[in-house]
Amino acid sequence: MDVRRLSQDLSVAGQVVPADLAEAARAGFRAVICNRPDGEGADQPRFSEIEAAARAAGLDARYLPVASGAVSDADAADFAAALAALPKPVLAYCRTGTRSATLWSLSEGAGGRPLPEILATAKAAGYDLSGAVRRIASGGRVPTESAGPFHSVVIVGGGAGGIAVAASLKAREPDLDIALIDPADIHYYQPGWTMVGGGIFAPATTARTMASLIPDGVRWIKAAVVAFEPERRTVVLEGCRAVRYDRLVVAPGLKLDWAGIEGLTETLGRNGVTSNYRYDLAPYTWDLVQNLRAGRALFTQPPMPIKCAGAPQKAMYLSADHWLRQDRLKDITVELYNAGPVLFGVNAYVPALMAYVERYGAHLNFQHTLARIDGPARRAWFSRKTEDGESETVETSFDMIHVVPPQRAPDFVRASPLADAGGWVEVDPARLRHTRFPEIYALGDACNAPNAKTAAAARKQAPVVAHNLLVEMGHLRGAEVAYDGYGSCPLTVERGKILLAEFGYGGKLMPSFPAWLIDGTRPSHMAWLLKERMLPSIYWKAMLKGREWMAKPRPADKAA
Fold first, then answer.
1. Helices 350-360 & 311-325, crossing angle to 10 degrees?
2. Are 538 and 455 in contact (CB under 8 A)?
3. Which of 184, 444, 461, 520 sees the fewest Cβ atoms within 10 Å?
């Protein structure tokens, strides 16, 4: 009997036989629901046999037969009522478990549970409910809405990647019919938050209204996406609204899983607990840095992949530099707790970084993942991998802790047919085109291309997606172009100096400037000026406007 758990109260299974009921009782189940009509298969037992065996095992039994492929609204309501009335936990079954899982999903949708959560739970249990997406989104009922509006190109996400690709498309094909879907009112220049946390940028300089940035002629659909139906070329929005497309670009960014660390959400923004990964918290980082006179300052980095892998240690360097300049560093213990095994993934930059680690007397703790935090008690617990592969818990105190949360693709991506086994949008890493749905492209943090997840990467990816999409649609002539994995991480090692790490696939160094101007393996003031004065303007006035300064795509045969 293959039992798959959907919730604390419900598990589902394929066809069970009378002998399975005693086993189910021993496993702790208290009731069973049969969703398979009698006589559907020549080899199935009748419900009367199941019921007798259930009673003998001390289980309640309920018969709610549903024809295959014909789950009605009434069936879903009856299932919800039975689940509420029966003693729990309940085991529901049909031929494969799919009908039972579908009934559960519709009842959960009727109860208001978010669609991505329902789909993700079912997917984790091995059930693909993509065919029921719109019914679940409509509260578990058969939707009555029309097919929804159509646009030639639909872009999901109004972050750096989404707006940049919309601008690049419009620059090449001004009359192209484009819609961009994003519920946010504000667009943030997230690379600036490290500088806010270091007291260099004012928070307001990193925020602009979404309406001011969406390119002219692009329709803004201010709504949240809940699911994809690639077979129907449809995006499903909250409230079961649908938007149809000819081509789709997926660029929704990452989900920051603050709840993935026990106790973190309750203490963020107070008790010395901060993070530059949130607009409203970066100023608190600077407050803590300014006011810390002595004690222990911890900086954490979760397992990869994360947005800007250098950001956790950037916060450490800028903080330690301030304490050094204020003659406080001798009284402050600085520690980096990194879930990974190395300081930085590209070896060429490690020597220069280690020089600053030594300069600040920072203690490096590798293979340590933050698992729990108690803000009022100023205590943190890390899971540490030992040399023999085991795991142990390390407890420590802090006066200040800068936390970087674990990160993953958004739930509606993870639960969708677009996702790979890890939950990321599955693309060809060079062409950024989906490997299974050729009319879909993706860029930015949510796609599974093995590049650094940075705004600099999206700046190079957007022209590639725009060019290839228009070639494939027949709007442009010529060959496809390729993305080479370029990413940039300006590592702020001290106030006034930056190590400009630029690299592509496989860690290949890809400097944008001659070494006499900026040598990326050495900290320089010129790189600092680039970060402080030039990159924000390049972001707002070039990247998001379709002006591809130093980002023109290259033919596939020349991009390697």
1. 40
2. no
3. 184
Task: Label residue 73 by pLDDT band (50, 70, 90).
Answer: confident
CA distances from 170 to 70, 123, 185, 432 (A): 45, 37, 22, 19
Look at residues 398, 361, 399, 360 and name the one whose alpha carbon lies nearest to residue 382.
Answer: 398
β-strand 178-181 against 150-156: which pairing, if any? parallel
Q: Is the model's pLDDT at 560 over the cut of 60?
A: no
Q: Are strands 400-402 and 391-397 parallel, antiparallel or unpaired?
A: unpaired
Mean pLDDT score of the chain, rounded to an integer? 94
Phi, psi angles (nearest 5°) of residue 238: -55, 145
Q: What b/e string do you get for 246-262 counting C-beta neighbours within 10 Å, with b at 16 or more?
A: ebbbbbbbbbbeeebbe
Instruction: Decide: helix, strand or coil at residue 259.
Output: helix
Cβ count near 199 (within 10 Å): 17
Element (H, E) at 282: helix 282-291
Catalytic residues: 308, 489
List domains and CATH numbers for the chain.
Answer: 3-137 (3.90.190.10), 150-254+409-558 (3.50.50.60), 258-406 (3.50.50.60)
Residues near 121 by beta carbon (within 8 Å), at least 6 away in sequence: 6, 7
